[in-house]
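Extended Data, panel c. Modelled sequence:
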Amino acid sequence: MSSAKLRKAFRYPTEEDISDDEIPGGLDEEVIPLISATVFLPSLLTSPSSQTRLTSLLAISSLLCTAYILFSLPNGKPANVRIDSATFDGQEPIRRYLTYLNGGLSILVGLNAFRFRNKEGVHDGFWLFFVLPSAMFFIVVLAKRTMLSVDIEGLEKLKYPYKGA
């Protein structure tokens, strides 16, 4: 006599079945500036020009600051919160003004990129790498401001309460 294998009937998951740990949080966006900083390591270590090494060091610093801004800024703030010093009230001055300092640093590196455009001894197109910190910083600031301007509580009220068909 063979034993019958019985299957459980399928049922849709309920709110109690899903924990916050099981819901994927998306990609870790903090990693993107860190990975892009590795582009500057070869020029930092092997370049004979001190200008190239200094600009590479500044670009790495800017990308590390951008990653820190992504990591440290809260995502769940209410609407009408700005990314500037109001976000870091009561914090030490470096965290309070980091957004401004990184903006200036990324602009400085971006402007210095055009000095490498026709420079001898530098690979063609290498100057485009130095535009990367500026572009990364401004995309991060724009995305964070957009995310902070969304009213989460208003969206929660619009959520459809029923699961399934």
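The longest helix spans residues 50-72. This feature is highlighted in the accompanying rendering.
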